[in-house]
Amino acid sequence: MGTKILKSHMFVVEKYLANGEFDKMKARLVADGRDQDAAMYPDKSSLTVAIHSVFTALGLASGKPWRIVVKIDIKGVFVQTPMKGGPVYMRVDPKISRYMIEIFAKLKEMLEADGCLYTLLLKAMYGCVQASALWYALIRSFLEELGYECSPTDRCVFRKRVGGRIFVLLLYVDDILAQVDEKEAVNLREHLMRKFGEVQFKVGSKLSYLGMQIDIRDEGTIVDMSFYVKKLLEGASVKGQSSPGNHDSFIVDEHAQRFEESKKKYFHSTTAKLLYLAKRARPDILTVVIFLCTRVQEATVQDRDKLDRVLGYLQWTEDYVLVL
Predict the structure, then answer these.
(1) Is 224 buried (19+), middle (13-18) or exposed (0-12) by CB count in 10 A?
(2) Within 10 A of 114 (CB to CB), how many other CB atoms are there?
């Protein structure tokens, strides 16, 4: 009847902690939301906590003797979130359909001639343009029922005052970083497991969060991304430098030779990785990296020299950490 049926894909990826240790093998079946009419879903952003909110909370964590830090991972959040709006249909490709039938034999009756299973999505399947907004509405409502208030400056920060103590939850899609006391940690665990079933809790002063290795100590919180730096430098043939830039770093030579496409892509992707690093654990390179970001579309041989200088500085200072 003219209804758009979304394709599906499955990806499998190895996940590592911020210190380089293997974490898990992760597989996920996703819908291809590119075929949806985005105009029908004006609120489709994936809300994630701002990095400055994370640092503010981590900086405060070391100053409260009663405070414990809990990393909470809610499993399968999108398939626990009811789909709302008009019907959304998805085609499961033949290979995945075969695997599904091996597990659930009754599905064979529903297999179409093209070898695919066709589904009506009752839950907010990952990849659908509205999935993130629906999940956020669900988790926000749940946390507010527990007495948490949404911050007016960052919608992924939730606060709750109990006596003289202020508890803070940071929301990054399905990962929650909680700064609470022991009693509230137990309360959160009970309510989250009752609502969502499988929920993983990691309690401790050392944890991996958003690509950063966090170590909360009495004297301050240490943010370490040295493993990320090590991986970034793999294959890079650069000379160690004592600073990320010099007096020539912000001068543009309009006559310098421009990059061919392959080198331009390398410059673009490496600069993006540097920006990710600079906005987290290495603000010492941020000024030069921001300038390099302005050059990704017009990169030249001169810009490559500036990029190599930043990499050389990281090679010289690979073990630097940020203390909050």
Answers:
(1) buried
(2) 10
Please write the tens of the pLDDT for every residue from 19-72. Answer: 888 888 888 888 888 878 766 666 656 678 999 999 999 888 887 788 889 999
What is the residue-wise DSSP string for 166-177? EEEEEEETTEEE
- Give the residue, 156 or 198, on which the prediction is more confident: 156
pTM of the complete model: 0.83
- 8 Å CB contact between 77 and 135: yes
What average pLDDT does the segment 155-169 reach?
94
DSSP state of 103: H
Q: Which of 132, 35, 39 is nearest to 88 (CA)?
A: 35
CB 28 within 8 A of CB 126: yes
- Beta strand pairing call for 322-323 and 220-224: antiparallel
Residues sharing a CB contact under 8 Å with residue 112, sequence separation 6 or more, in sequence order? 118
